[in-house]
Design goal:
The chain is of the alpha+beta class and 133 residues long. It has one domain. Helix content is 27%, strand content 36%. A hairpin with a 2-residue loop joins strand 1 and strand 2. The chain is globular. The N terminus is likely disordered.
Protein backbone atom coordinates (compact mmCIF):
# COMPACT_ATOMS: atom_id res chain seq x y z
CA UNK A 1 0.00 0.00 0.00
CA UNK A 2 1.87 3.03 -1.26
CA UNK A 3 1.11 6.46 0.13
CA UNK A 4 3.28 8.53 -2.15
CA UNK A 5 5.19 9.57 0.95
CA UNK A 6 8.30 8.14 2.53
CA UNK A 7 7.72 5.48 5.13
CA UNK A 8 4.17 4.40 4.29
CA UNK A 9 1.00 5.17 6.24
CA UNK A 10 1.35 6.06 9.89
CA UNK A 11 -1.83 5.20 11.77
CA UNK A 12 -2.44 6.24 15.31
CA UNK A 13 -0.11 8.83 16.73
CA UNK A 14 -0.27 11.78 19.02
CA UNK A 15 -3.80 12.50 20.28
CA UNK A 16 -3.30 16.25 19.75
CA UNK A 17 -2.33 15.71 16.11
CA UNK A 18 -5.32 13.40 15.61
CA UNK A 19 -7.59 15.96 17.26
CA UNK A 20 -6.43 18.65 14.82
CA UNK A 21 -6.83 16.28 11.88
CA UNK A 22 -10.43 15.52 12.97
CA UNK A 23 -11.16 19.26 13.16
CA UNK A 24 -9.69 19.71 9.67
CA UNK A 25 -11.64 16.72 8.34
CA UNK A 26 -14.91 18.12 9.71
CA UNK A 27 -14.14 21.50 8.12
CA UNK A 28 -13.54 19.93 4.72
CA UNK A 29 -16.77 17.90 4.97
CA UNK A 30 -18.68 21.09 5.88
CA UNK A 31 -17.14 22.86 2.87
CA UNK A 32 -18.16 20.09 0.48
CA UNK A 33 -21.69 20.03 1.90
CA UNK A 34 -21.98 23.83 1.56
CA UNK A 35 -20.72 23.75 -2.03
CA UNK A 36 -23.19 21.00 -2.92
CA UNK A 37 -26.07 22.85 -1.27
CA UNK A 38 -25.23 26.09 -3.12
CA UNK A 39 -25.48 24.26 -6.44
CA UNK A 40 -29.02 22.97 -5.91
CA UNK A 41 -32.17 25.07 -6.07
CA UNK A 42 -34.01 23.55 -3.10
CA UNK A 43 -33.26 21.64 0.05
CA UNK A 44 -30.36 21.91 2.44
CA UNK A 45 -28.20 19.44 4.29
CA UNK A 46 -28.15 19.68 8.07
CA UNK A 47 -24.72 19.32 9.68
CA UNK A 48 -24.38 18.68 13.40
CA UNK A 49 -21.03 18.28 15.11
CA UNK A 50 -20.59 17.25 18.72
CA UNK A 51 -17.50 18.91 20.12
CA UNK A 52 -14.59 16.63 20.92
CA UNK A 53 -15.13 15.32 24.43
CA UNK A 54 -12.93 12.78 26.15
CA UNK A 55 -11.08 12.15 22.89
CA UNK A 56 -14.19 11.36 20.84
CA UNK A 57 -15.87 13.30 18.06
CA UNK A 58 -19.16 12.85 16.21
CA UNK A 59 -20.42 14.39 12.98
CA UNK A 60 -23.97 13.92 11.68
CA UNK A 61 -25.17 14.84 8.18
CA UNK A 62 -28.86 14.74 7.27
CA UNK A 63 -30.00 15.11 3.68
CA UNK A 64 -33.57 14.25 2.80
CA UNK A 65 -34.23 10.72 3.99
CA UNK A 66 -30.59 9.84 4.72
CA UNK A 67 -28.48 10.36 7.82
CA UNK A 68 -24.73 9.78 7.91
CA UNK A 69 -23.10 9.52 11.34
CA UNK A 70 -19.29 9.61 11.68
CA UNK A 71 -17.66 8.87 15.02
CA UNK A 72 -13.95 9.30 15.72
CA UNK A 73 -11.45 8.64 18.49
CA UNK A 74 -8.41 10.87 18.92
CA UNK A 75 -6.83 8.14 21.05
CA UNK A 76 -6.06 5.89 18.08
CA UNK A 77 -7.38 7.65 14.96
CA UNK A 78 -10.09 5.01 14.45
CA UNK A 79 -13.65 5.81 13.50
CA UNK A 80 -16.92 4.30 12.38
CA UNK A 81 -19.53 5.52 9.95
CA UNK A 82 -23.15 4.51 9.59
CA UNK A 83 -25.65 5.52 6.90
CA UNK A 84 -29.28 5.40 8.06
CA UNK A 85 -32.55 5.66 6.23
CA UNK A 86 -34.74 8.39 7.76
CA UNK A 87 -34.00 7.77 11.47
CA UNK A 88 -31.00 6.39 13.36
CA UNK A 89 -31.64 2.90 14.65
CA UNK A 90 -30.47 -0.65 14.00
CA UNK A 91 -33.41 -1.46 11.73
CA UNK A 92 -32.68 1.62 9.56
CA UNK A 93 -29.01 0.94 8.76
CA UNK A 94 -28.29 1.08 5.02
CA UNK A 95 -24.49 0.79 5.23
CA UNK A 96 -21.73 0.94 7.80
CA UNK A 97 -18.00 0.74 7.95
CA UNK A 98 -14.81 1.81 9.65
CA UNK A 99 -12.07 4.26 8.83
CA UNK A 100 -8.78 5.36 10.31
CA UNK A 101 -7.07 8.73 10.05
CA UNK A 102 -3.31 8.53 10.32
CA UNK A 103 -0.97 11.08 11.81
CA UNK A 104 0.21 11.71 8.24
CA UNK A 105 -3.39 12.77 7.33
CA UNK A 106 -3.99 9.70 5.16
CA UNK A 107 -7.31 7.92 5.62
CA UNK A 108 -7.98 4.19 5.26
CA UNK A 109 -11.61 3.22 4.59
CA UNK A 110 -12.80 -0.31 5.33
CA UNK A 111 -14.61 -0.52 1.97
CA UNK A 112 -11.67 0.67 -0.17
CA UNK A 113 -8.15 -0.47 -0.85
CA UNK A 114 -5.21 1.71 0.04
CA UNK A 115 -5.38 5.12 1.63
CA UNK A 116 -6.81 8.47 0.59
CA UNK A 117 -5.78 12.03 1.25
CA UNK A 118 -7.93 13.65 3.94
CA UNK A 119 -9.87 15.86 1.50
CA UNK A 120 -10.56 12.93 -0.85
CA UNK A 121 -11.91 10.87 2.06
CA UNK A 122 -14.11 13.82 3.10
CA UNK A 123 -15.46 13.97 -0.44
CA UNK A 124 -16.13 10.20 -0.39
CA UNK A 125 -18.16 10.51 2.83
CA UNK A 126 -20.04 13.54 1.52
CA UNK A 127 -20.93 11.62 -1.64
CA UNK A 128 -22.62 8.92 0.48
CA UNK A 129 -25.21 11.37 1.73
CA UNK A 130 -25.85 12.73 -1.78
CA UNK A 131 -25.95 9.31 -3.54
CA UNK A 132 -22.80 10.02 -5.53
CA UNK A 133 -19.87 7.62 -5.68
Amino acid sequence: MSTGRTGGPAFGGDALVLRELWISFVSVVRSYVAAHDMARPTGRTLVDEDALKDGAGRLTLRNGQKILVLEFSTENGAGTWTLYEDDPGPERVLERGEYRIGADSLVALSDRRGTLELEVAAEAFTARIFDEE
